[in-house]
Amino acid sequence: MATGDQTAGSTRIQAASSEVVRDINRRIVLNLIRTRHPVSRADLARLCGLQRSTISLIVEQLIAENWVVEGPTGRPPRGRRPTFLRLNEERVIIGVDVRPLQTTVAVSDAHGKFTSREVIGTPPDAKAGVDAIIQCILRMMASCQGKKIEGIGISLPGRFSRSADRLVFAPNLKWGDFDIRGPIMEATGLEVELENAANACVLAAVWFDHLEESRNLVVVTVSEGIGTGIMVNGQLLRGLNGMAGEFGHVPLDPKGPLCGCGSRGCWEVFASNRAALRYYFEAGSAPDELTFLDLLSRADQGDTRAVNALETQAHYLGRGMRMIVAGLAPERIVVVGDVTRAWHRFGPVIESEVQAQVLSGGSAPRLAPSDEDGNARLRGTVALVLQKDFGVYA
Ligand SMILES: [Zn+2]
């Protein structure tokens, strides 16, 4: 009897694991087509070491599922002409990047290529905000006639607790305890995935910037605030209530300026774009509506006050990153935000601050600006939605 049970049990385990293997192979092939397209079946077999027959079965399945389409045919100098495979561009994702002042809604294909977008002001009130996002999404959906929309990914300037399904911490977006997902799902009939902006940028880096080899990676987003997204041993670090990564709210000086979180002297009040503007205003008069981009161009025009304000911000960025280097020892730190447009100013200062703090036995992480053009958060929302079908890193 006992033996019989054991046999039944082990058969079940075996059946489950061959299914798992099939699923993993399917995801690997799907990702190879995503990253190497156009690619032939023979290329796929060579790239992942699976047999041609196995590849053919997986590809047939992906074509039947409408994820992959065939064509065009290659023209090799001799031999059989291979048929190339690529992702079906008719399957699209709607990405929403909510920032404290403005929100972008965009349509992307599975390659993270955006085909349309709309920018709206972010209402300060949660209900009005979600309503405005819904209206914008519905307009985008109407423009996607004939395409299959996979879902909606939303990047938020705060921490989102998956268990509570609520934004639990967003000092720069005063939306409070409000259900964001429910009304959007109801109005659109689509699945909605929500994620912190910095975590979304980690996904974007791994998915679209070919950093999939980096297992320990930190993304630092610099905008109105400072966010960090952390990947440790290849996994996104979420922590209790999704709160991991709030280095921006570690106080560097308890007597410093008041922060949106209620504390004083947090890293972000010294190193965010708002901080740079404050340094500029403190040093003399300036128009109230001056933006961070204006500050960058004033610096380029030789305004020394602007140059100094940015340099102070850069020093504080580097000083804060010492916490990250000492605490997490990442291989890479990727910086996202408008500061990357002036990397010639920021890079060397941040680098020297970080280098000064590398502990003996440690080595400095590779520090680099994100190589996207301001789309990291949005591309992260695309990865967020595609994870359920493509995710091998999730
Ligand atoms: Zn704070």
Can you offer a commentary on this structure?
It is a single chain. Helices cover 43% and strands 21% of the residues. The protein is an alpha/beta fold. The protein starts with a helix and ends with a helix. Mean pLDDT is 89; it is low at 1-9. Residues 249, 259, 261, 263, 266, 268 line the site of zinc ion (ZN). Residues 249, 259, 261, 263, 266, 268 line the site of zinc ion.
Question: Order of helices and strands, N to C?
Answer: HEHHEEEEEHEEEHEHEEEHHHHEHEH
As a percent range, the share of helical residues equals 40-55%
Which molecules are bound besides the chains?
zinc ion
Global geometry: globular
Describe the strand arrangement of the main beta sheet, using strand numbers.
6-5-4-7-10
CA-based gyration radius? 24 Å
Low-confidence parts: 1-9
Give me the secondary-structure category: alpha/beta
Q: Total helix count?
A: 12
Major β-sheet profile: 5 strands, mixed
Task: Calculate the mean pLDDT score and round it.
Answer: 89
Brief write-up:
With about 400 residues, this protein is an alpha/beta fold. About 45% of the residues lie in helices and about 20% in strands.
